[in-house]
Design brief:
With about 210 residues, the chain is mostly helical. The protein has eight helices and two strands; from the N terminus they run αββααααααα. The protein has one domain: Butyryl-CoA Dehydrogenase, subunit A, domain 3, CATH 1.20.140.10. A hairpin with a 2-residue loop joins strand 1 and strand 2.
Length: about 210
């Protein structure tokens, strides 16, 4: 998709101390602070769109009748929407918990070390969930759902790009993995991850199964 974004470059530019944000040499931390705030906002946006798709699908399934029965009477319609609804409710709690923890963090530089993985979880899962919900809404609504008479195709296109911008899904998952396996985070979290070992019983069982 073509854009009208300009390309700007600077050569031999002097920046006075009054123009420096944060500490000298710590510009990445400033940028990451903005990125984390944007990612959690983006997650909330995608969650809201996902909830809209699920609710619209439920309302349509209750009103639409085929062969003398409402679509809502079919488990093939119910179960996918139940799964999406469940995921929306769980994600809502994670987003609120993470956002509250970000607000409570006194030093914004610590957000990356203490909450970076949580923000990444919220972002990548919310964007993926929104796409799944929009796709399901199109399926439930049938042909009219695919058309521009309904907002679902626009929701899919709009939120599908969020799985690339602000850090792709792969980047977000890589960050979560870094915290899980002890490569990123605070010293305490890294130490805890490296201390965790597989129980001896599990190791022996695994060895015997290979034999």
């Amino acid at each position: 998709m073509p854009t009208d974004h300009a390309t700007v470059s600077y050569t031999s530019v002097f920046a006075p101390r009054s123009a420096i944000l944060g500490e000298l040499g710590a510009g990445l931390a400033v940028a990451q602070s903005f990125v984390h705030e944007n990612r959690i906002r983006q997650a909330a946006s995608s969650l809201g769109a996902a909830v809209f798709c699920v609710r619209a699908s439920v309302a349509y399934a209750r009103a639409r009748h085929t062969f003398g029965r409402p679509l809502a009477a079919s488990q093939a319609i119910q179960f996918p929407l139940v799964e999406l609804h469940t995921q929306c409710e769980m994600l809502r709690l994670l987003i609120r918990q993470t956002a509250a923890a970000m607000d409570a963090e006194r030093d914004w530089r610590d957000v990356e070390r203490t909450l970076g993985d949580r923000v990444a979880m919220c972002n990548y899962w919310a964007n993926r969930l929104c796409c799944d919900a929009a796709d399901r809404a199109i399926q439930v609504h049938g042909g009219v759902g695919y058309s521009r008479h309904k907002p679902f195709e626009h929701i899919y296109r709009h939120h599908r790009r969020y799985r690339i911008t602000e850090g792709s899904e792969e980047i977000q998952m890589r960050k979560v993995a870094g915290y899980m396996f002890g490569f990123l985070g605070t010293e305490e979290r890294v130490e805890k991850a490296t201390r965790e070992k597989v129980p001896e019983d599990d190791v022996s069982k695994s060895a015997k199964s290979k034999i």
